[in-house]
Specification:
This protein is mainly α and 160 residues long. Helices cover 75% and strands 0% of the residues. The protein has 8 helices and no strands. Helix 5 crosses helix 8. This is RNA polymerase sigma factor, sigma-70 family. Keywords: DNA-binding, Sigma factor, Transcription, Transcription regulation.
Length: 160
């Protein structure tokens, strides 16, 4: 059993890490939560029924781990989302860039699931469309279409 768990870890740790990175936007947090995900998976492996792919099951665990982390942090604020804005040449440009970035995050937040998750995975985690489809149990074409539709909705919200 130990060899099987090690094999699962080697095969899926990178995908779980990338998934958590797309949610957390922080490499250290993603690494820590990946370890927590596999810790929980080891202790609940007997509950895995094989209905979905093991990668999907692991990402479901990872999502729950991430939600627990968010509750622990009392959710991120809009200020935290804009801390990594690069310095501009003038204070006016910095203010405009911060406002635009905040508007983008607000627009993304208006999306329903799974569109919001696809956008976060694609933009923040640098997942390919095939990886997004695999993690979410859908096809690559579904991921592409969902991302395209999400972009259209975001553009509609931003143009208002």
């Amino acid at each position: 059993m130990s060899d099987r768990i090690e094999e699962i870890y080697k095969e899926h740790a990178r995908s779980v890490y990338k998934f958590l990175l797309s949610l957390s936007h922080d490499a250290d947090t993603a690494e820590e939560l990946t370890q927590e995900t596999f810790y929980r998976a080891v202790y609940s492996i007997d509950k895995y029924d094989g209905i979905c792919k093991i990668s999907v099951w692991l990402c479901q665990i990872a999502k729950h781990v991430w939600y627990q982390e968010l509750r622990k942090r009392n959710r991120q604020t809009a200020q935290e989302l804009t801390e990594d804005i690069p310095d501009s040449s003038t204070p006016e440009q910095s203010a405009l860039l911060a406002r635009d970035k905040l508007s983008l995050y607000k627009a993304i937040h208006t999306l329903s699931e799974p569109m919001r998750e696809v956008v976060h995975m694609r933009l923040s985690g640098e997942f390919s469309f095939s990886e997004i489809g695999e993690v979410l149990g859908k096809s690559e074409n579904w991921a592409r279409t969902t991302f395209y539709r999400a972009k259209q909705k975001i553009m509609g919200v931003l143009s208002c």
